[in-house]
Amino acid sequence: VIESEIPPPVSVGAPSSTPQPLAPVRPAPPVPTVSDSTPLEGSEVTTLSPAVSNAITPTSEEEQSSSATLPSPEEPSDEKEATRAMLLERQKEYKLAALKAKKQGEMEQARLYFLTSKKLDAVINALEKGQAVDLSEVPPPPGAGGSSAPSGPSLQVTQPVAEAPAPAAPSAPKDVLEALEQRRVKYMEASNQAKASGDDRKARMHDRIAKQYQSAIRAHKAGKAVNFDELPVPPGFPPIPGVKASGPEQGFIAALEAANKLASSEVGQEDDDEDKEEEPKFAVPEKPKKPALDVSAEGKPSSSASPDRTAEQEGFSPTAAQQLELLESRKKQYMKAALQAKQKKEMEQAKVFLRTAKGLDPMIEAARNGKPVDIGTLPSPPGDEEDDFILVHHCDVQLSEKAEQVYTQLANILTKQREKCLTHSEQFTHLGNVAETTKFEKMAESCKKSLEVLMLAQSRGLLPPKHHFEERSFHTVRIFPELSSTDLVIIIVKGMNLPAPSGIQPNDLDAYIKFEFPYPSAEQSQKHKTSVIKNTNSPEYNQNFTLSINRNHRGFRRVVASKGLKLELLHKGGFLRSDKPIGTALVKLDKLESQSEIREIVEVMDGRKHTGGRVEVKVRLREPLCGQDMQKSTERWLVIDSS
């Protein structure tokens, strides 16, 4: 009972001669009426009965208990509202006191205050349902009388309350999804109970927590990280499987923060405004840093990923983890290139790089969800501009001609090595080989850093850095990514010492080559011819012709295996003169089964007679018809020693 609200004792004058009535067992109404038979002005105050005085200041524990049992069915509703307002105010005082103690570092004191405020919920709910409540043990205001927090018996309700008994602990969940669903259902039930009892504030609070769990369930199903520390835990529920339980102090601090939001926002706000302002906001977890992917000599990435990345990819296969690593690395490269282009005021180029980086987001999301990703469609790394390097030449810098020559040679070798690595990386990218792609990208990055060191040393006038050559073996694959799977490219390179028809001098030969590719059928063959090269018997054409094919078609396989490509060489006739034949040549195509490009120098025949002339021809596919065109090469590799 709030002592400051108790009225002072009534002053009593001279004893009245009227006999005093005995105090009733049940307390009288709080506002006693004076009998009409005593209308005197002075005696109206002095002749109050002792029962009224005893009702204001009870003299025994029984009368205290009976007077503190509020509200009874006969009491007016305004007293019930006043009691409810007093209890709500007392609960708010304890919540604020708990927050104050928490800010001062007194965690145990804050815990006692918070538990006391939670105990008042049952009393308030019982009072709203019309049940009789024992207010004799309502705790005093926090800090009153030198007491820190009530440590006596808990508040009691004279009639059983629906929310008072502790809920039965649910069965232990088998996985994270089942645990989240159990907690969501629990908060939905609590919300329905609060709505049935008319407590809209509590119903809204439980609804928000249920929505928070619903969002966590959706995020967990999508494979995203869930911050379990932000999810309130219902009392008596077991911990989530596989999740390290937070300490009691951390969970308590989170509960205090929630209580602070509720206490500060429950006064003077509309229902819709509360729903908008108190919408649960999930903290976005920091994106784990990309770990370095070490590459062994065999080209296989080692498992030296950071703990965060390892934890994120626990459910991934090694291939999926490598794909995700490659996608995030490629996006980072394009974002960096966009930033560099923006710093150079090249806004259009920056926009292109930024769009490319954003275009990788769907592939990254699919890789995180465990879906297959076509690495063959991954864009190549952005090209580095030459003006990435700023050379500062000083007037006192002087290098000998020999040093300049060494710098030039080293720079040329490193540039070629880097271009070769990028080419191999692009080829393995189109094949979907993530390990080899990452290996050659790292080698290209190493060459770029060595080139930077070289150019920096040259700009400072230093002697060429120490370097050495190593023999490195590479497993490379030959592929032409610019071609589609339905393309067959015929390249007529040149003719050599072609025979001239009778009556034509070799220096007057105007030769051209035509051919027919019998696919899809002999009647629908694809026909092409080169341009005419005049006045030479060794013409150079270097012309490409693209044919449409179906790699798996039986007719195409038959042409490749047995028929080949037949070339006809002709001399261009003049005015009113027809073209004269020079000879024919046959290019076999059976090597396309295992090679993506074949280069043939075939002899020109006149029927079955050898003419001595030759024709150089190349034939290309995107990749071999069967398997991959793998090649092993050993090269001398330049390495700049680190000082």
Automatic annotation (TrEMBL):
Q: According to the UniProt entry, which residue ranges have a biased composition of type Low complexity?
A: 147-173
Polar residues biased stretches:
34-70
Q: Respond yes or no to whether keyword Coiled coil is given for this record.
A: yes
Q: Where is the composition biased (Basic and acidic residues)?
A: 278-292
One Pfam family from the record:
C2
Write out the biased-composition intervals (Pro residues).
1-10, 21-32
Is Magnesium given among the entry's keywords? no
Q: Where are the transmembrane segments?
A: none
Q: Which InterPro entries match?
A: C2_dom, C2_domain_sf, C2_Freud, CC2D1A/B, CC2D1A/B_DM14
Q: Which family does it belong to?
A: Belongs to the CC2D1 family.
Q: What is the official name of this protein in its record? A: Coiled-coil and C2 domain-containing protein 1B
What organism is listed for this UniProt entry? Nothobranchius rachovii
**Organism taxonomic ancestry:** Eukaryota, Metazoa, Chordata, Craniata, Vertebrata
Which gene carries the instructions for this protein? CC2D1B
